[in-house]
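Private note to self, pasted from the team thread so I don't lose it. Backbone tokens:
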């Protein structure tokens, strides 16, 4: 009882206020940020622009993003004129670089493909809801050494990279990163 009497009511009230403020300090778990307003129900995803020499890379990326958007979100993907928002993408660069070599033949045994993409999600009124000017994705693949069974593995590597890109992009848009 003696300890309680040393604290005034003001001290106890101040301590209670500090505790309440500490509980609501602003920390939130991932996945709660919403960057897309409730007014957006439809999203257009036109074919990405390809500024590279890599054949059909823009088609792979666009298709993967459309697939991911339709399977993971409640947004309806529509043609451009009737959409509440539009997701634009531009493939900025692609490269393929040998990673390892066969010591006997000197030929590459594995390679790395790298793709750089910029994206933006823009509301019908022109407000930018999300943008990232520098997505960079990498995918490694093995190079076939048997000439009779030669199958170029870079196309499947680009498909895998496209799926990874689409998953990351949609997650970033939905989670506000």
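Design output:
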């Amino acid at each position: 009882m003696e300890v309680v009497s040393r604290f005034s009511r003001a001290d106890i009230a101040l301590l209670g206020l500090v505790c309440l403020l500490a509980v609501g300090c602003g920390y939130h778990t991932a996945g709660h940020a919403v960057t897309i307003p409730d007014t957006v129900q439809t999203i257009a995803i036109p074919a990405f622009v390809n500024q590279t020499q890599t054949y059909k890379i823009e088609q792979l990326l666009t298709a993967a993003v459309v697939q991911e958007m339709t399977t993971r979100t409640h947004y309806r993907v529509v043609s451009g004129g009737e959409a509440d928002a539009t997701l634009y993408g531009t493939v900025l660069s692609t490269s393929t670089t040998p990673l390892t070599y066969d010591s006997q033949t000197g030929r590459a045994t594995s390679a790395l493909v790298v793709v750089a993409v910029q994206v933006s999600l823009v509301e019908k009124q022109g407000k930018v809801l999300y943008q990232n000017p520098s997505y960079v994705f990498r995918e490694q693949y093995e190079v076939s050494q048997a000439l009779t069974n030669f199958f170029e593995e870079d196309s499947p590597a680009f498909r895998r990279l496209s799926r990874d890109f689409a998953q990351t992009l949609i997650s970033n848009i939905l989670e506000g990163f």
